[in-house]
Amino acid sequence: MRIMGFPGLYIQGEGLLDRLGEHISPFGKRPFIISDSRVWDLYGSAVSQTVPSFTYSSFGGEISPEEIERQVEKAHGSSCDMAVGIGGGKVLDTAKAIKLHLNVPVVIVPTIASNDAATSRLIITYTEEGNFLGPLFLSTNPDAVIVDTKVIRQAPLRFLKSGIADALATYYEAEECYKSGAFNFFGGKQTLTAIRLAKLCQETVFATARKALRDIQEGVSSDEVEQLVEAVVLLSGLGFEGCGVAAAHAVSQGFTLLPELRGNLHGEEVAVGLIVQVLLEKRSSHEMDALLNLYKDLGLPISLKDLGLPDPSEEQLRTIARFACRQNSRIYNMSFPITEGEVVQCLKKGILLSNA
């Protein structure tokens, strides 16, 4: 069986947040809006002017089972008929969790493009201390995704760079999932559409990222910026969910176990995980050089050194590798067997690449 999913509606463009009420009105009349305090300080006034009636809730900082329960109870008490998440990936996933528990439509409004979570039905959960727990799943993708590229451009550039890294991993992992026969996040095989979208995501990032980041730094809106944001939010989201993930994400999840690596963004962790995957695959020097050149031009992290751990101990490396190679890990979506020792060696090789 081949299967993939899509959000019900995807809208991208400049100034959409100023017309948010217009875009969410088809989904309900009593929205429950969740955001973090920093984002709400920036955009709460604009939202209040365009959405006539809503209940607001401040996100607690980590998408843990406890935080999900708190937000669901508050949403239920508000008698909302839709959930709206405005912010980064964890806020958006919390809004999805409200849909999961209350069966109301969910509208996703990313204010940063730091990862590809916006379009997907996945809800990634963590402990209150920030350790990775695992995914929950909606039955369908979000009802709508609204991406205001003016808001994305105004966010710190680090977030978009993180999203670029997450998007870069999409095709490399999709290719391995396809070769190995692994199931995607819908429990089926990859459609031709999903594979092509993953490839288009990679091609778009390589073609636009350098100029798009320069344009953003200069305060310029351009086709390259729009195309890059689409690749990071839409193409990467459809590609990873419709194809699956592999070693890049499996290795990156192991980083959450080390306190020394706390504070890095998901995409930054995936950037290093992708280098490990490419090393595990023994891809050609041409492919590795192209990837490393892009990393260096964009300022993406290459190794643990760049994430804040310049001299990891053997035990720290083993901790990451054990988690990456744990039972049912998505590292086994790779098309060849991988051992903990090989992951450790590739983590070490990555540090050498950082120093080159």
Structure at a glance:
With 356 residues, the protein is of the alpha/beta class. The protein is 54% helix and 11% strand.
Mean pLDDT: 96
Reading the helices and strands in chain order gives: EHEHEHEHEEEEHHHHHHHHHH
Query: How would you characterize the largest beta sheet?
Result: 6 strands, parallel
Low-confidence runs: none
Classify the fold: give the CATH topology of the largest domain.
Dehydroquinate synthase-like, alpha domain
The outline comes out as: globular
Sheet with most strands: strand arrangement: 1-8-5-4-2-3
**Number of helices in the DSSP assignment:** 14
Alpha-beta classification: alpha/beta
Q: Which value, in Å, is the CA radius of gyration?
A: 19 Å
CATH superfamily of the largest domain: Dehydroquinate synthase-like - alpha domain
Percent range for helical residues? 40-55%
What is the CATH architecture assignment of the largest domain? Up-down Bundle
Q: How many E strands? A: 8
Write the layout of secondary structure elements.
Layout: E1 10-13, H1 20-24, E2 31-35, H2 37-50, E3 55-58, H3 65-77, E4 82-87, H4 89-102, E5 106-110, E6 122-126, E7 132-137, E8 144-148, H5 149-154, H6 157-180, H7 192-217, H8 223-243, H9 247-255, H10 266-281, H11 285-298, H12 304-307, H13 314-324, H14 340-355
Helix pairs in contact: 3-4, 6-7, 6-8, 6-10, 7-8, 9-10, 9-13, 10-14, 13-14
Structure explained in plain terms:
The protein has helices at 20-24, 37-50, 65-77, 89-102, 149-154, 157-180, 192-217, 223-243, 247-255, 266-281, 285-298, 304-307, 314-324, 340-355; strands at residues 10-13, 31-35, 55-58, 82-87, 106-110, 122-126, 132-137, 144-148. α6 runs parallel beside α8. The radius of gyration is 19 Å and the shape is globular. The strands form two sheets. A six-stranded parallel β-sheet has the order 1-8-5-4-2-3. A two-stranded antiparallel ribbon has the order 6-7. α4 (89-102) links the parallel β4 (82-87) and β5. By secondary structure, it is an alpha/beta fold. It has 14 helices and eight strands. It folds into two domains: 10-153, Rossmann fold; 157-355, Up-down Bundle (Dehydroquinate synthase-like, alpha domain), CATH 1.20.1090. Helices cover 54% and strands 11% of the residues.
